Amino acid sequence: MRNRSALILTTVLTTGALTLTACGSRDKDKDKDSGDKTTVTIGFDAPLTGDLSALGIGMRNSAELAVKTANKENTVDGVEFKLEPLDDQAQPSVGGQNAQKFISNEDVIGVVGPLNSSVSQSMQKPFNDASLTQISPANTGTELTQGDGWKKGDKKRQFKTFFRTATTDQVQGQFAAQYLFQKAKIKKVYLIDDQKTYGAGLAASFKDTFTSLGGKIVGQDHVNPEDRDFKSVASKVKGKGAQAVYYGGEYPAAAPLSQQLKESGADVPLMGGDGMKSDEFPKLNKKAEGDFGTSVGAPVEELPSAKKFISEYNKNYKENMETYGGGTYDATWAIIEAVKIAVDENDGELPDDGREKVLASMSKVKFDGVTGSVSFDEYGDTTNTMMTAYEVKNNKWESKFSEAYKPR
């Protein structure tokens, strides 16, 4: 199934439905004002069930809103967009299966997602082999774009099809360390990670920068992200004199970890990255007050560029847009813009080799999005390196400091 390269284009006619394959001929003389539309499907992948579903559902809704907006505004003349969402349950094996489903559906011209870097690792090569564009609003694992040698300065693009609107763990970990050391004046940290691609990478980046600034890592531990009993590690932290705990992982484990730290007598703040900075974190944690988090981009609710998006989102959905709403809208819109470029360069029609042409168009994509200027560098990384530090105040995340951070 993964070797099927033809793109089926479904054109809705007033007299019925006509399916065109890459081997078929397109009616070049059709009346463009007749209302005929070519259906283009954008795939979407994230956890829509399970512990991380709050983040995934906010992402899905935001992608759907971008598709609805493009159709309503006729952003690409002659094209009707459709979203196909799949649930990966935050499991790499399921993500790999979903990748094959998208590849075998010849209407799919690009895929938005996933949430988890570990899931993305199971999808990248199949998408690359199929020339199917993938763009994630949440994957921050630096190696996904720059390879394992990035730490030594040996950066090599891994997959021509992978892009992201979220910046890297290298940027986020460094920013968190700098904020904690320089702004929060914390010099001693206990380091914990969940051993997953995202969490371990984030913790490693934090450690390198924190120690280079003069900070001290007084202890280090790993936990199982499926566990909810962290009393053992909490007791270790208590005896080490840590002024804070940095956690590389996600909110389902971060919330009980934070609460049990305080209940054990280690009354110090927990800090984590965008996977922890969810509205669910303070809901699941009775001791969240004073904890820190970082997230990619500036706070969406504070951006003039996001006002319309927020208004339309709140009109259409009851679920919170969560951490990645704005970035997901922009990721979806990047594919829409790539389709527009491909159509414009092909006399107003989607090319038969649509996947390849859309992929080629991604390097030309540049627009002012919900989260700011959207474009991609030679690795497929976002050129927007804005980061924000947050603190839990009155049971809600409150932005404290934003900066367009450049890696050290």
UniProtKB/TrEMBL annotation:
Pfam families: Peripla_BP_6. Residues 132-145 have a biased composition (Polar residues). InterPro entries: Leu-bd, Peripla_BP_I. Residues 39-394 form the Leucine-binding protein domain. Residues 132-152 are annotated as: Disordered. Keywords: Signal. Coiled coil: none annotated. Belongs to the leucine-binding protein family. This is Branched-chain amino acid ABC transporter substrate-binding protein. It comes from Streptomyces flavofungini. The lineage of its organism: Bacteria, Bacillati, Actinomycetota, Actinomycetes, Kitasatosporales.
